[in-house]
Amino acid sequence: MKLFIQTLGCAMNERDSAHMIAELQEKKQYTLTDNAKDADLILINTCSVREKPEKKLFSEIGQFAKEKKPGAKIGICGCTASHLGEEIIKKAPSVDFVLGARNVSKITEVLERPKAVEVDIDYDDSTYVFASSQDMGIKAHLNISIGCDKKCSYCIVPFTRGKEISIPTDLLVNEAKKLVANGVKELLLLGQNVNHYGVRFSTPHKKTNFTELLATLSEIDGLYRIRFTSPHPLHMDDGFLEEFARNPKIAKGIHIPLQSGSSQILKMMKRGYDKQWYLDRIAKLKSLLPNVGIGTDIIVGFPTESEQDFEDTMEVLSIVEFDTLYSFVYSPRPHTSAYNYDKSMLVPQEMAKERLSRLQNLHKQILQKKAQKEIGSIYEVLIENHRDDEGQTWSEGRSSQNKLIKILGRKCSIGSIIQVKVTHNDGGGLYGEFVRELSLEQALQANVYIKCINGSD
Ligand code: SF4
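# iron/sulfur cluster complex -> structure
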């Protein structure tokens, strides 16, 4: 039996797809195919954070229904499945089942029930032990919580993934150890509100928090780096920032969603912090780690956003000098409180797009300015990819700060840790020369050495 799976949206969806693949491989002996026409089961793992992919879903279902081989099943999973439920089968009768984002552990069960719809957002997937580990090479995702208790006024996630429940620490440690034993060097911890870990478990559990979880996971022998996404600025207390800076296994690149630089808009977004709080957290982080890499998300054109509100966002961009930026024009989503705002509060699309382009241009200028300072810097790169054929030899990987760096003329083995000196930047990425290969132990000690060379300590 062959399985074709299309995954849209965020890392959480990728992880959910990995769970479903593992279940289907182990319990139903499916093998993966990248050709939908060959598949016995076609899964679309959907995203509903923005309006466009949701609109495209029905035309995609129609296309798959036309192409699929006789008897093949189509299943719709993920956030749009939670959001639209049985409406999907009513609108597209070729769909065999609908499985919500909070119900992925039921994949082998719904497969056997014609026209099944499982979208219960109170379902507890948090203590479910999934089938054998994902095969992700040297990097793997690990879900540490499901759902979200926040009520950001633009976000549909609490409606599609339900209230927040943390996965017990011992399950996480066991899964992490299994992954490391299979060759994983870098873990990406996932949660909609990842640093809110430990607030609620569905079974009795000792009191714990995200900072303690990081410390526990970092004790696993053989693990090199831990990343996580997405933390909420509100839960970044000093204890967390100090552990982040101190612990050599925690990668020194962090994504801190800003959403807006205007305190008034942040209040309307129900984010729980203001511009000053955000800048204060960044200042504390940079005082501990001057060379930290910071990424963010920004929504432009939220209802009532004035030119002054937008200028506040531009100001935060200039102060923080983010290394990565995911920026979007506001997209109204059903079941969110902002969806009910009066039409007169909406920012005209043309104005929002023009602001988005100003924001992205400023970010480009910031990156160009920062790129000049990179020349001569030394980074520790975990090699993820290499090539040595047709006259091309190179290796590439990411630094602790999450910068993609390519080493030309050298094939380093995947999973090796290489010290690299940056030699140039072509606007699209950094290039460097091989300095030396490090063992895991050397690499964990070498953090200090690298900070000294870069003049940041
Ligand atoms: S923290 Fe806010 S933006 Fe993030 S998933 Fe929860 S409700 Fe959505």
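# post-check
The first helix runs from residue 11 to 28.
Confidence is low (pLDDT under 50) at residues 448-457.
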